[in-house]
Design brief:
This protein is of the alpha+beta class. The protein has 2 domains: 40 residues; 107 residues, Tetrahydropterin Synthase, Chain A (2-Layer Sandwich), CATH 3.30.479. It is 55% helix and 24% strand. A 3-stranded antiparallel β-sheet has the order 1-2-3, covered by helices on one side. β1 and β2 form a beta hairpin. The protein is rod-shaped and about 105 Å long.
Length: 154
């Protein structure tokens, strides 16, 4: 066998061995993959947030003057699937929240205690919408909190 033929055989053999090794490395179940799946299980205990965009804008009358309330909200759940349902039902949620807010007077929208009461009412509205749409045999969780991320009255 001449020198060039021997070098060609060695190069082909190295390519085959290297390609096989790469194939087994990328296609086998490795400890790194198992670690990733265990992290996904741990992530269930984390909080997931979803901003309700765009901001809610509601008008109301105070002392014979038209006033406006602009409110940005985020919801929190420990189950990402719930936030997917919130996204899916966003038109119904926005409608119910706007109707809830627009039935409030200035005094009910102003002050720390009143804002907290409004936040609780909004949370119940969102939970009611999601619960009404969920299959009774498959209940992955619920929206656990609503947070004001902006609140402007003028």
């Amino acid at each position: 066998m001449n020198k060039t033929a021997a070098i060609t055989v060695i190069i082909v053999a190295l390519l085959i061995v290297g390609g096989s090794g790469a194939w087994f490395y990328f296609n086998s179940e490795t400890p790194a993959t198992e670690a990733t799946s265990s992290r996904a299980i741990e992530a269930r205990g984390e909080s997931y947030y979803l901003a309700l965009e765009p901001p809610l804008i509601v008008n109301f009358v105070y002392k014979d003057t038209l006033r406006y309330l602009q409110m940005t909200l985020s919801v929190m759940s420990h189950e990402p699937k719930i936030l997917e349902q919130v996204t899916h039902h966003m038109p119904a949620i926005r409608h119910r929240l706007i109707m809830l807010i627009s039935n409030k007077g200035f005094d009910e929208l102003n002050g720390k205690d009143n804002k907290e009461a409004l936040r609780e009412e909004m949370l119940l509205e969102i939970r009611n919408i999601i619960q009404a749409e969920q299959n009774k045999t498959h209940n992955p969780g619920q929206v656990e909190a609503v947070y004001f991320t902006g609140y402007v009255m003028q």
